[in-house]
Amino acid sequence: MESQIRKIHQQLVDQKITCTTLIQEKLAALKPNSHNTVNSLLEDFALEKAKKVDEKIKNRQEIGLLEGIPFGVKDVYMLQGTFTTASSDFLKNYKAAYTATAIQKLIDAGAIPIVKENCDSFGHGSSSENTIFGAVKNAINPALVAGGSSGGSAVNVAKQFTVFSIGGDTGGSVRQPSGYNKVYGLKPTYGRVSRFGLLAYASSTDCVGPIATSIEDIRIVLNTISGIDVKDQTTYKSDIISDENISTASEIKAIGYFKNFIENNAIDSEIKADFLAAIEKIKSKGIEVKELDFFDSETLVSTYYTLVMAETASNLSRLDGTNYGNRMEGKNLKDTYSITRSENFSEETKRRIVGGNQVLSQGFSDEIYLKAINLKNEISENFERDFQEVAIILSPVTPKCPPKIGDSLKDPLAMYLSDAYTVGFSLGQLPTLTIPQGTSTGLQISAAKTNDEILLKFANFLKEVL
Fold it and tell me: DSSP readout, 14-65?
């Protein structure tokens, strides 16, 4: 699909549409909430911004490429004066006191946020069913899950309710729902985009990522939100990615894939066959494809969930109803804390807090948590060796097709295992992009740290090949 950002920008400049009309049309499409993607609409805020864009155009002032472009925001990002609920009972009435850095950069560029989007509560889930606003429905088949935790963001883009959305990816939460809904979704290199203002799930793997219908729109948004932020010391200076630089992938001579992902009994036969067919098409273009060895998916999932549950328990310890959140009074202070946390956290969030406290507790931390830390380091070292041989690692996004709504809630382990092909790249802090080609749930392209540009190069190549 062509760049929606460039198309709309030109329509605004040529005065074929007004920004106010554009925003009103998108809001009208969102209001029925047909797919349970909406937590709150930012109608007054958006229309006020649109009015200013129209005034600039009327006065023949130049507007930026993103100016007037409507976008969605996963409801785990702070946007001053708006509800930031994390789709939870705990924060259902919480209004943000400041704005997340990535969102502020987009607003400064003139883009207009129009909706806070439904997601798994605190990002805890892979289906966008763990939410007080009702399960998000898949854009292609509403009987199926949308994926998670950025399900609302992916569906809004797929249905063209928003031009792009900003999701959050901890272990696949942008990539997996993007695959389920056939759109592009990027997890940048860890630290390329500031996490300031993102409600923390697991701080060592949380990433801010764009979802869009074209590679060009991903590029435009990524350039806007990237860069050093003094409020997030993990950020680093990154180069602008130009459209010329990603127009050819001629320097990519070899790619790889993990054979144990494909030989795993858990993968659907259709996804396996489609993936291998995609590999053959890539080979036919003269690119060498290497089989790589990697950790088995069960080890990856166990390592990932051990670490993120520990970080979740730590990050959510601040939520007790004292400073913010839905406080519930008990007989005494201890009882108040207990009731507040028991009643406001979902079953899935409580499961992760309990698991995190367990692996951090005396007698278990050495045996479980430190072992997971060591495995994470080994995973990173494995990636470093692989990227000495290949420029890209290609994989399915998920081993299975999206389940029916309700099935994942009955089997939490199956939900965790749906992340089997995404969590390894999160542990390695690698840039990874989902593309809507290759298999029924897309393909996942990964590169070495800070090599985000090469993902877009190869995605453009695959757009013509697959």
Answer: TTSS-HHHHHHHHHHHHTT-TTS-EEEE-HHHHHHHHHHHHHHHHTT----T
